[in-house]
Amino acid sequence: MKYEGRNSVLELLKTDKNIDKILIDKNLSGSLKVICAEAHKKKIKLQFVFKKVLDKESDDGRHQGVIAYATDYEYATIYDILQSDDKSGLVIVCDGIEDVHNLGAIIRVAECAGANGVIITAQNSASVTDAVIRVSAGAAEHIKVAKINSLVFAIEKLKQAGYWLYALEADGEDIYKANISGKVALVIGGEDSGVRRLTRDKCDFCLALPLHGKVNSLNASVALGIAAYEVIRRR
Asked: Cα dihedral sign for 20, 24, 26, 32?
């Protein structure tokens, strides 16, 4: 897997993943020097190249002077998330998040909020790619992400583990007035479709963020950020 961008590579270096090599701009500046030093400590192969080489290797030109190549992203299982000894009692469930930028931002929010993990679906969903890792600012390397075939199965397992399922939907109860307690799984839907009816019917509650402007919805990752930190505030 290819990791582009300074934050993504720095976070990758903090993990135990097998890094094959790192391409880095000959013109070392700023955090590139830190990356270089960390790579030397871990005895990782460094190739100092001209920017035009990085431009050619990059998928979208946003490499920021460094590209790393490592083993493919390793997904967790839902059991890994449930057996986690983290104490947050917060899990994020993605129902049809297809945009890589939204998924990356969601993973970043989840990691910053101290969530035990993120659950995504194998169908109709973005996967954890190098672009997602870059958008997540490397957060994808520090949080468990489970890719499952059946969201209904995942929801049942969460309920068995004592989680309350809260779908984030426009017609739900005002999040600031709702009773939110115990272990919480926040369910965020796709950019256009929202939480699917089958998924919503399996949830225990629906929560909504009050909107006071003329636009009738928030970006999925923004909505999740507000909801996740409201859960934290309650605690």
From this structure: negative
Residue 76 CB partners (closer than 8 Å, separation 6+) = 117, 144, 145, 146
Give me the half-sphere count of Cα atoms (radius 13 Å) on the Cβ side of residue 196: 13
**Number of other CB atoms surrounding residue 108 within 10 Å:** 21
- pTM of the predicted protein model: 0.79
Distance CA 125, CA 14 (A): 27
Edge-first strand listing for the sheet containing 90-95: 144-148, 117-121, 90-95, 183-189, 163-174, 205-208
Give me the half-sphere count of Cα atoms (radius 13 Å) on the Cβ side of residue 176.
4
Phi, psi torsion values for 193, nearest 5 degrees: -90, -20
* SS3 labels along 5-24: CHHHHHHHHCCCCCEEEEEE
Tens of pLDDT, residue by residue over 15-39, are 888 888 999 999 888 999 999 999 9
Q: Which residues pair with 190 in a beta bridge?
A: 194
